[in-house]
Amino acid sequence: MKALGITATFIFTTILGAGAPQAKGPTIKIGAIFSTTGPAANLGGPEARTLEMLVQEANQKGGIGGYQIDLVLKDSGSSPEKAISLAKRLIEEDKVFAIIGPSTSGETLKIKSIAEEGKTILLSCAAAEAIVNPVASFVFKVAPSDSHAARRIFEQMKKMGISKIGLLSSNTGFGKAGKEQVEKLAPGFGIQVVANEVYDKDATDLTAVVTKLKAAGVQAFINWSIEPAQAIVIKNARQVGLSIPIFQSHGFGNIQYAKAAGPAAEGVIFPASRLLVADTLPADDKQRSVLLKYKQSYESHYKEDASTFGGHAHDALLLLGKAVDKAGTLDKEKVRAALENLQGVVGTAGIFNFSARDHGGLGMDAFEMQTVKNGKFVVFSDTAAKK
After folding, report:
1. How many of the other CB atoms lie within 10 Å of CB of 95?
2. Is 71 a residue whose pLDDT tops 50?
């Protein structure tokens, strides 16, 4: 199966087909909001396909916590406004126990209060820290934080002797959140942002924007977005003669973006989950077995490369399952409390340690600095950076 093309509701009971045995017994209804179409489809598509696959696998093994999963999957089309109506429908009409997603920060921030007021667990697959800061009792996220990504980028820049940079960001919730973190944290690393441009998420030509960076004489630049435009940024930068290092955010963690940029993507540096380089991890790495199992399952099932975004859906279902197991009930408050106290859960994004003060659960060590080499993602080498 490839893209789902979901426009309304996808109930899990259709996944196995009419001839497949249907398990009987108690069920847990889980809603999901993903951007399977629109500008963020490279995020939502892998997330939806991952959840579809994992729910099928889980139900064949008895579900989670002894409950068969009834999955109600909806496509937001990458629209924060549509996410609002979908969240209300899932809570008020479908009566879901929990919601996984949305795919983007802008969508999540629009429905955060809806989930909280509806006392419905929300496991967002987006990264903005405003999703969990301030903490809302029923709202969690599984994607690593923007500030951690920015810090990892700045640490790498310091090693490379870079102190004068440009910043590009898309006009989305993710772009805005990342821009704020970069601006706030840069001075602490002795880094000056001398050119700062925001572009439209649907842009098809960003030559004028990257030309401004060239005129500013920056030593490197960061692009912060999740849309296809981030590939256009790379191509246009190389076309105007910018040969400086290009850093992308963790929103670059789908090989489709590198493929879209083609040869221009060679050498792009970005922080991302170890999922993208799982094959190269040492045998004693705590995440290796989890990463390889998911990666091999996904790639075998869908005949496409796994991405960090699909990994977020994996982690959300994993964490919800562990919380239901721990609570031993479908009492929402008890499952919420169990989720809030999960420690040492090994996921694709990192090792989760939640608390009453931290509904993100991941640290800076969730990121590995990576680069594009010969059209593939590989671990970035400091040795290479000094050359």
Report:
1. 11
2. yes
Domain of 374 in residue numbering reads as 146-272+368-385
Percent of the chain with pLDDT over 90: 90
Alpha helices in 217-248 (DSSP H): 229-239
Please name the residues in contact with 377: beta carbons below 8 A apart, sequence gap of 6 or more. 255, 258, 272, 276, 277, 370, 371
User: For residue 277, is it within any domain?
Assistant: no
Q: Cβ atoms within 10 A of the Cβ of 282, count? A: 6
Residues 78 and 97 in one domain: yes
Map residue 344 onto helix, strand or coil: strand
- Within a domain: residue 278? no
Cα angle 148, 114, 354; round to 5: 35
Residue 24 has what pLDDT?
53
The tens digit of pLDDT for each residue in 354-366 reads 999 999 999 999 9
The overall pTM is greater than 0.85: yes
Residue 282 lies in a domain: no
**How far is residue 325's CA from residue 109's CA, in Å, rounded to a whole number?**
28
Residues 351 and 230 occupy one common structural domain: no
- The secondary element (H helix, E strand) that includes residue 124 is strand 121-124
